[in-house]
Amino acid sequence: MHKNYLTVEEAGEYLNTGVRFVRRLIAERRIAFHKVGAHVRLTVADLDAFVQSGRVEPVTVRWSGGRVVA
């Protein structure tokens, strides 16, 4: 069964981080989440979007004599 919403603990496992990190993301409003009564739920799509937003593209540099050549 594919779950649409994950608990904070499950989100931590999905991101391979601790629960504290996920809770901090929620407290700082750095990640989208849903409130279901007193419970917080996160979608896998929102977690993937958060991870993609932190993606850093590689840079191609040329070196010559230990220095970067433009």
Could you give a quick summary of the protein structure above?
With 70 residues, the protein is of the alpha+beta class. It has three helices and five strands; from the N terminus they run E-H-H-E-E-H-E-E. The longest helix has 10 residues, at 44-53.
Structure description:
With 70 residues, this protein is of the alpha+beta class. Helices cover 39% and strands 23% of the residues. A 3-stranded antiparallel β-sheet has the order 1-3-2. Strand 4 and strand 5 form a beta hairpin. The termini are far apart. The model has no long low-confidence stretch (mean pLDDT 92).
Beta-strand percentage?
A: 15-25%
Number of strands: 5
Tell me the distance between the termini: 52 Å
Can you write the helix and strand succession as a string?
A: EHHEEHEE
- Total helices: the number is 3
Main sheet: strands, sense, barrel:
3 strands, antiparallel
Largest sheet, order of strands side by side?
Answer: 1-3-2
What overall geometry do the principal axes of the alpha carbons give?
elongated
SSE layout:
Elements: E1 5-6, H1 8-15, H2 19-27, E2 34-36, E3 39-43, H3 44-53, E4 62-64, E5 67-69
Antiparallel strand pairs: 1-3, 2-3, 4-5
